[in-house]
Amino acid sequence: MRLATVRTDSGPRAAVWREDGWHALPAPDLSAYLAAHTTAEADGLAGDALPGAVPLLPLPAPGKVICCGLNYADHITEMGRELPSHPTLFAKYADTLVGPDAEIRLPDGLDVDWEAELAVVVGTDIRNAGREQAGAAIAGYTVANDISIRDWQNRTLQWFQGKAWDASTPLGPVVVTPDEIDPVAGVEVTCRVNGVERQRGNTKTLVFDSAALLAYVSTFTVLRPGDVVLTGTPGGVGMGMTPPTYLADGDLVEAEVTGIGSIAATIRFSR
Amino acid sequence: MRLATVRTDSGPRAAVWREDGWHALPAPDLSAYLAAHTTAEADGLAGDALPGAVPLLPLPAPGKVICCGLNYADHITEMGRELPSHPTLFAKYADTLVGPDAEIRLPDGLDVDWEAELAVVVGTDIRNAGREQAGAAIAGYTVANDISIRDWQNRTLQWFQGKAWDASTPLGPVVVTPDEIDPVAGVEVTCRVNGVERQRGNTKTLVFDSAALLAYVSTFTVLRPGDVVLTGTPGGVGMGMTPPTYLADGDLVEAEVTGIGSIAATIRFSR
């Protein structure tokens, strides 16, 4: 099943994909839908067809957006680090997210880098969950680009200030339920800059898979429906290039996960 | 002016302190009050007296709780680091906060440390604010204890997972408006464990003061009424003792800021 928040003539709407296109769900967006319903209910709750509907940011109001760094063996090596015994975690905000076809507006002069990622969407409350419970709490998967302001990320020991710029992390276009996609078996995560492939990784090589990440996070904080966990990025980021290469004004950066779709963002610098 | 969220016989309530005690404000808590009103309006909006009212967690629903580490020169030295050119920032959640007279329940075996701090409460939306605008956006100040799970904090490069345990950061008891307290001129921040003073610092020694922190954060993300920024902790944390000393089951840890008040928490370990 594919779920989304879509733009319609009468405003945004949670929606489920059927053979003939998007159908309305009883909520203004997928954050609100997941707060009130399970994904399993979506088929029975599907209403009118929504011709011309276009996916927006699927989850506009997650209470928590938690990211895992250093989770693909090749990216870890590229950053000059050792394989971790625990996930490296940091936070973003709902404000950090932006839709699947975005212009990312940033001040001129920042070192803006790309990080294509598989993102996990939480479907039920979990706290102190084991692996099995955490896996069962996954509502679905979507695509993220953890656009990172490297100069700010590296100003101090804590990455947060380079990771939480408003409207800088594209997410979407749809949330695909676990019956249709299995990241443990493996899906390809890729990133292209102006059409040139820069990243390619497979989620089967994740050090910590989706269920492991949700279980780990739930040890210290509750996760709720609509919360999002980014699973980390494969090798090939701009910071790892020789010399380091960052995004320029007008650059088009696309992140894709097989079985889900792709998200595109254009970088716009202002003075 | 002193503002709080108080417990009353008819449930929690935003309140303002007058000579004869707490008076009701037109909101269920201070988060809701600040979302709808300014602190300057509180005097005119004050309603019935609330006899027997007791301060609770003043801000139960901040969208952002952002913390500054390494901001007192003596604490920076104690941790073996150099004076920073930029604030070191990390995130907590509304879920991380707990009231001013709390039991903090954690699993047995964690290295639980104390960090008494001055916390700044945001009063108006700011983004890309300069120092003056950021200073004018301060609704008031309160006390925080950035209780830190050091073993988790130090598992990876990112501190977040040791800083965001649910209901582990006491905050309160009241929010004091800037006309009554001036942290730039200096207020004392202290921490006592079972009555023994462990930390004492003065906010006049902060590397980045409240207005500077709000302005800096607003460069990358919007701050809204009711958001909270913790300004860092002075020297004297348990991790800096020889040998490192952490909190035990039943320990009482108190954080105090002169001119605001004190918050107390009892540590309760479970198996």
Largest sheet data of chain A:
11 strands, mixed
SS elements, strand count of chain A:
18
The count of helical stretches of chain A stands at: 7
**What is the average of the pLDDT values of chain A?**
96
**Any low-confidence stretches of chain A, pLDDT <50, length ≥5?**
none
- Report the β-strand fraction of chain A as a percent range: 35-45%
First-last Cα distance of chain A: 43 Å
SS-based class of chain A: alpha+beta
Within CATH, the superfamily of the largest domain in chain A carries the name Fumarylacetoacetase-like, C-terminal domain
Query: How would you classify the quaternary structure?
Result: homodimer
Please identify the top-level CATH class of the largest domain in chain A: Alpha Beta
Write down the domain tally of chain A: 2
CATH-assigned fold name of the largest domain in chain A:
Fumarylacetoacetate hydrolase, domain 2
Most residues in contact: chain pair: A-B, 32 and 33 residues
Provide the CATH architecture of the largest domain in chain A: Alpha-Beta Complex
Rg of chain A, Å, rounded: 18 Å
- Helical proportion of chain A? 10-25%
Based on Cα principal axes, name the global outline of chain A: globular
| SSE topology string of chain A | EEEHHEEHEEEEEHEEHHEEEHEEE
